[in-house]
């Protein structure tokens, strides 16, 4: 499914997975942020994933480099458990009690797919 390669490739693989499983394509909604892509339900238009490039410092990390992150919705208990791991961060620009940011280059493809599936179900 994912080859675990370059972040741009991993980002595209997330979009391919979502298209094959949920029949949705990324939407680029903001001219100011051309790399921010939203995945949303085709019926109710609720978001279940937001993929974006964010400066490390804006995520509470050291450095100024851009990181590919995805925001997904999870149960609050799961958010609390996952945030003990460095690749899982408080949600960037979303409700931190219900959304989680993930540094996609540091998470394996199976876990990304499982989390994406969970987010899809929670946003039905």
Automatic annotation (TrEMBL):
A Pfam family assignment: YjbR
InterPro entries in UniProt: YjbR, YjbR-like_sf, YjbR/MT2646/Rv2570-like
Keywords: DNA-binding
GO terms of molecular function: DNA binding
UniProt protein name: MmcQ/YjbR family DNA-binding protein
Species in which this protein is naturally found: Companilactobacillus halodurans
């Amino acid at each position: 499914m994912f080859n675990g390669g370059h972040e741009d490739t991993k980002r595209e693989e997330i979009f391919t997975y979502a298209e094959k499983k949920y029949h949705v394509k990324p939407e680029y909604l903001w001219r100011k942020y051309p790399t921010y892509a939203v995945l949303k339900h085709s019926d109710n238009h609720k978001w279940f994933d937001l993929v974006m490039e964010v400066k490390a410092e804006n995520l509470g990390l050291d450095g100024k480099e851009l990181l590919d992150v995805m925001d997904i919705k999870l149960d609050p208990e799961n958010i609390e458990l996952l945030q003990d791991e460095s690749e899982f961060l408080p949600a960037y620009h979303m409700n931190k009690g219900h959304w989680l940011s993930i540094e996609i280059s540091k998470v394996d493809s199976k876990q990304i797919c499982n989390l994406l599936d969970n987010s899809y179900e929670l946003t039905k």
